[in-house]
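Notebook entry, structure prediction.
Reason for the run: the old model in the group folder had no record of what sequence produced it. Starting over properly, with the input documented here first.
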Amino acid sequence: MKYMMLIAGSEEAWAGLSHDEEHRLMGEIGQWWNDQMAAGRITEGYQLQPSATATTVRTAGAGGPSVTDGPYVDAKEVIGGYGILDVANLDEAIAVASAWPGPDVLEIRPVVERES
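New structure, fully documented this time:
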């Protein structure tokens, strides 16, 4: 079963790390990611650029789409990346996410898979 794992964190918290702390933590996350991919539990995923680079497109409205700079919501925690998990069930998805070495919040959602 496939799940999307959304990785949310505080950009301020990450910015507050020293260079050495960030380097160490990114090394741990990289190792965790590589281990999960090697085991076939993650099929893809990416780190995202900072939320300041986001563009929001709102499609509902009388005047047509509205495009604004910035993320969808002004929040303390923002989505910083994602991974697609390919695991047997939710318990395994939770086990994978629970081993994440970063100071983040992980949200797991089942992916809707439609036949082509």
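Summary: Strands lie at 2-10, 42-47, 55-58, 66-69, 77-86, 105-110.
The old model has been moved to the deprecated folder.
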